[in-house]
Amino acid sequence: MIGRKQLVLKCYLCTPGKPGGFSPAYREVLPEFERTSGITVSTASGASQGTGPDTIGAMLRRGEPADVVIMNRSGLAELVAQGKIAAGTDLDLAETLIGIEKGNC
Question: In what order do the strands lie in the sheet with 7-13?
Answer without folding.
Answer: 39-45, 7-13, 68-70
